Amino acid sequence: MSFARSLLLAAFLLLTASLQAHPEWREAYCIGVIDDEYIFDFKVKFDAPSYYVGKHPKEATIKELDALMYEPGRLAAAAAQAPKDFLRGTRVYADGVSVPLELIGFPTAAEVQTLSKQQGEADRYPVIMTARLRAKIPRETGIVEVVYPEALGAVITNLRRGMDSQVLMTVAPGEKGLFKIGEVHFTLSGFLREGFEHVIPDGWDHGLFMLAMMLAAASVGEALRRSLIFTLGHAITLTLVVTGTVPLVGSWIEPIIAATIALGGYLAYRQKPAPTAFVAVPLVFGLIHGLGFAAAAADKLQGIGPADLAKLLLGFNVGVEAAQAAIILTTAGILYALSKARLETSALRRILGLLIAIAGTAIMAVRIWSLGKGA
Fold it and tell me: Sign of torsion, CA 53 57 63 66?
């Protein structure tokens, strides 16, 4: 083999290696303890460089990590911003209410660089560091939930309350890790708040669907009526699942929910929906979305009594409807302002509908792919 070919082969192998994720990636994990004073201290151990580039360790390439570590100023800049992003992406809920979080410790750029060098050239990644957080949990709390920054990927979580109870679970990106520490107290106001937050800010896909319903409606009144029909469908399936009449569905419901977003966007794009779209479509879509919520909240709703069930159905669905009405009225206000400025809004409605249809289709494809990957 000539020297030139050898050089090209070496360069190719070096480039290929630099584009690969580092082979020793590790999942993030958390250890948390709630003491007798209801102070929740928890430590999250994670690969700092991959988090700094905004990727799961399995997806961050050596080339990206090397650029972060060795390009002047990049690591320092990322490390300066990372604590704020980490604190913003981490949330703790006590019985559904978000509690203030304090960031006690977070790895600095110098610490990351020092540990990477200590590990040696061959094992410079991953660089597992620790973030320390603390929250004050109100007494009589029944359920504590934890959400981690999505860039961490799935987080293996071990939570303990004194020596009384312990739970080990894997918390998927964007999901809540649930830990029962006492008797669960359900309130009407709590369900109302959860219903609102189910749409705003947590249910961005739900919000997209409702935006599509608004864009396809001939008037604000028609959009609000569709919203009520959708909520009725949502309430029906939620009731059937909670009462055990219908079994819990699996994660296969998620691509179907995304398909409803795509179809809703298509109806908005057409601007001439079939008569059944005014009643049947929001009702059927509501039934589907209700199944999805019941599956996501299965642990929290397990063994709920008749009195609490009534609170759930009233509070949660009123909260959902209030959030949907907020989306509809906000969109209507924007369209009205544009029309008063003598701008044509029908084309805008169609364009937005098309974009929602494309987004829904993409979300559906990603969720189908995720199902296949997890099988």
Answer: positive
* Tokens 């949660």 found at: 316
- For residue 183, count CB atoms less than 10 angstroms from its CB and return exposed for 0-12, middle for 13-18, buried for 19 or more: exposed
- Rounded Cα distance between 348 and 268, Å, is 10
- Rounded CA gap, 345 and 328, in Å? 15
Spatial distance between the Cα atoms of 249 and 291, rounded to a whole number of angstroms: 7
Q: CB–CB of 159/32 below 8 Å?
A: yes
Contact by Cβ (8 Å): 44, 30? yes
Residue appearing with tokens 């918390």: 171
Cα angle for residues 359, 286, 336 (degrees, 5° grid): 60
| pTM exceeds cut of 0.70 | no
Structure tokens belonging to residue 148: 């981690």
Distance between CA atoms of 141 and 258, rounded to whole angstroms? 34
Q: What is the pLDDT along the chain (375 residues), one digit of tens a residue?
A: 444 444 344 343 344 444 444 556 788 999 999 988 899 999 999 999 999 988 887 888 888 888 998 999 999 999 999 999 999 999 999 887 889 999 999 999 999 999 999 988 778 888 999 999 999 998 878 888 899 998 898 899 998 887 667 888 888 887 888 888 766 566 777 778 878 887 887 777 778 888 888 888 878 888 888 888 888 888 888 888 877 777 777 778 888 888 888 888 888 888 765 555 556 778 888 888 888 777 766 656 665 666 677 777 788 888 888 988 998 899 888 888 888 777 777 788 888 888 988 988 988 888 888 776 655
Contact 82, 74 (CB under 8 A): no
**C-alpha span between 124 and 66 (Å, rounded):** 10
Structural tokens at position 240? 């059937």
* Cα–Cα dist 229/30, whole Å: 42
> Strands 155-161 and 28-34: what pairing?
parallel
Cα distance between residue 88 and residue 90, in whole Å: 6
Strand-pairing partners, residue 156, are 29, 170
